Amino acid sequence: MTMAATWAAYEAREARGAARAPLLHAARNGTASPSLLWKETGDHVHDRQFSVIFIEPLVVDAPLPPGVPRWPAPGEALLSPALLADGRDEGIENRYGKHVGAIGPEGLADPGERLAYVRPAEGLFARDNAYPIHGFGMSSPWALGDAASVKSLTVFLSMVIGMLLVPAGLLTVVAARLGAAGRDRRVALIGALGGSRWQVSLLGLGEAAGPILLGAGLIAPLSVIALLADIRVPWTGYLLGAADLRAHASVLAGAALAAPLLVAITVVLLHPPAVSSRSTRPQGRPRSRAVKVMAYLCPLFLLILSWYPAAAADSGATPELTLVLMVGSVGTLATLPAVAALLISAAGRAVTAIGRRRGAPGTLLAGRWTQGRPGYLTRLVAGVVMAVGLLCLVQVYPSVNDPFVRGAREARAQLGLSMLVVAVPEGTPPSRTESWLRTLPGDARTVAYGISMSGEGPDGEIGPGQSVEVRPDVMVRGECPSLSALGLTCPKRVGTGYTMDPADGAPALRRLVSDAGVDRISVERGSSVVAAGQLVVFDPDGTDLHLHDLKRTAYATIGPPVTVEPLAQSWIGGAQLLSDQLRWIPLFGTFGVLLVALAATLNNLAEVMRFTRAIAPVSVLAGSRRVYVAVAAWTLMAPLCVAAAMGVVGGVWITLPLTTPPRNGELPGSTLALVVGVLVTLSAVMAMSAARGAVRESERWRPHHD
Q1: I need a labelling partner for 186 at 20 to 30 A (CA). Which of 90, 431, 435, 692 fits?
Q2: Cα angle vertex 227, ends 223, 233, to 5°?
Q3: Pairing state of beta strands 115-119 and 48-57?
Q4: Dihedral pair phi/psi, residue 442, rounded to 5°
Q5: What are the residue ranges of helices labelled H in 194-284?
């Protein structure tokens, strides 16, 4: 259901994204002259970026964008409901003009998208800084709004498959084999009586029908709720639209029917066939071929994960490589338990030999117990191996970009809102910029700021065949009070200047050029007003400026697409976007680990119960109850400890693509040590519980016909 809902949400988003995409060229039979001016720019609310679309009709019958019920008058704006709710405390209602309505759902990528349509005031919008378009609607979506920052469907589904589908598959297999010992005896009896495979399948389906129907009954109300009302996904804040799910209700219904059907097929396939033979001799238990096949496939998936870092370093994380990474990770988590089971089963021969040589009945019995039972051992260790692997992924994924996110937050804490960068669009009359500058607080200062790239040879000149060193050049121009506030010496005459080392400037200047990576600044005395380019507005004392008011007055005076942002806002916004995207990892990872933990708990409890019943008569033959401790240690604790070690190996391996340069993910050794310690402790507790249960069972055991 999760995968079906994901697909439905992506399909609906792409359809609406294509419908609102601007037509830059006329249709085949349409008019050749454009009907609108269109320009997209970005803005931020709580450091989260969103799209602002400035639009102006050129003809009376200009088409409306999807979701816009009528043309707003000049100086009016329509906001999405999510943007209005999120930005109310930042004055979003009047930032772009008068707020006159909401954008309809058909014009939003999803119900929670933040978006604004703005019709600028008369005379503030020109062809120089806008696209002339002919209408809306293309075959593919435009990179606009949330569509520009959402991960692709391939990437998202790979996360769902690795962190939810694989643990759910493990839980299904474990549930299908709970009580397998008694069920297998019944199947053998049916085979001895002449029963067919079809009859065995019907028996298995009858036993599983109740739990399957119960699970389907629990999912049905949640599905109905999702079809009737929008649901906010916990922790991520994403709003899943009910209309999107209703539009693809047939796919969701198919998924709801397919889920119990797949579980039923799994139950049938995991039942051993009824062995029918003319021989009266007992039939041995067939070895599990599926376990061997899975174990043989494991090195292939490990090889894929080892190859991925080199491939991604050359071409980046393309959708194709992401699919390969998903296959390698999922395949490793699915097949590594089979490898561990075969290793433990093979070690059973050595344990048997030790018990025979030393005359230790517990060790001998445990060795015989683990030999030739790869299916039992796979189920026993699968939960531990997968849980460790998922925990490693949850730990490493957020750490890949953690230095970037942490650095951005530290920069915001240091800079605050005391320094703003204003991007004046090309073609803006200087008189507008001057009018806006007159509205600034009296203690604010402004300078013109620009970055250009220049190159020079080793000797300062560029000649044929010489290597050229390209570096950024920073220009700062302003009046004497502004230059002095940055710790700069003001030139004696207007139009003159000098170059200097940024390290010699005041802290405000060093913060301004910190991201440019320059070792030289050009300082010029003159007006800070620019016809196009960047202005820097700052408070000499480091006091925060009134960002929201300055944005509102800039849009009203300078005109679109002017931007007023704190210094390093693009860095901060990128960090916030990464932080929001990474919230899906712990969400899915936590659910996946819970599923694996549930599967491991059910399986291990069943094994403990079977152990206590099967081992109870042994004390009569061994003459000592200490045999229970030995058998429990070898058959339960030792395999789980091996599984913990294999899980660490698998966890380290599947995170190689995230920890190998150029990726900078980290998997702390302390985390692995803690996980192994906890698992070893739990395995010891489980073994002791099984031994104690066997002792109690032996006290009640009496010989009877089996």
Answers
A1: 692
A2: 75
A3: parallel
A4: -65, -30
A5: 197-228, 242-247, 249-270
Measured distance CA(703)–CA(121) in Å, rounded: 96
Q: How many residues does the chain have?
A: 706
Task: Please return the burial class of 391, using the count of CB atoms within 10 Å of its CB with bins 0-12, 13-18 and 19+.
Answer: buried
DSSP annotation of 634: I
pTM: 0.81
3-state SS, residue 706: coil
Token readout for 575 is 């960090």
Angle at 647 between CA 646 and CA 651, to 5 degrees: 120
* pLDDT tens digits, 545-594: 999 999 999 999 998 889 999 987 887 888 788 788 888 888 888 888 88
The position carrying tokens 């050794």 is 669
What is the rounded distance in angstroms from the CA atom of residue 106 to the CA atom of residue 100? 18
> What would the pLDDT profile of 412-427 be if each residue is shown by its tens digit?
777 788 899 999 988 8
Q: What distance in Å separates the CA atoms of residue 512 and residue 252, rounded to the nearest whole number?
A: 53
358-390 pLDDT, tens digit per residue, is 877 777 777 777 776 777 788 888 888 988 988
Say how far apart CA 331 and CA 300 lie, in whole Å.
9
**Residue 56 forms beta bridges with which residues?**
37
Euclidean distance between CA atoms 91 and 385, whole angstroms: 51
CA pair distance 163, 159, nearest whole angstrom: 6
Which amino acid, 424?
V
Tell me which range, 155-159, 270-274, 562-566, 579-583, is most confidently predicted by mean pLDDT: 562-566
Coil vs helix vs strand at 117: strand
Q: Which one-letter amino acid corresponds to residue 613?
A: R
Segments in 139-196 forming alpha helices (H): 153-160, 166-177, 180-192
The dihedrals phi and psi of 189, each to the nearest 5 degrees, come to -65, -40
Residue in this structure with the two tokens 């809902």, named with its chain if needed: 5
| Among the listed residues 291, 400, 399, 393, the one whose alpha carbon sits nearest the alpha carbon of residue 653 | 393
The torsion angles phi and psi of 52, rounded to 5 degrees, stand at -120, 125
Instruction: For residue 525, list its beta bridge partners.
Output: 478
CB neighbour burial string for 468-485, b if at least 16 within 10 angstroms, e if fewer: eeeeeebbbbbbeebbeb
Distances (CA, A) of 414 to 417, 418, 512, 574: 9, 10, 12, 18
3-state secondary structure of 31: coil
Q: What is the mean pLDDT of the chain?
A: 82
